Amino acid sequence: MSNQQTIKRITEIIINELKLEDVTPETFDVDLDLVDEIGIDSMDLATIALVLRDEYGIRIDEDDYPKLTTVRIIAAYIDDKRSQGE
Question: Could you tell me which residue ranges the Carrier domain spans (predicted)?
Answer without folding.
Answer: 1-82
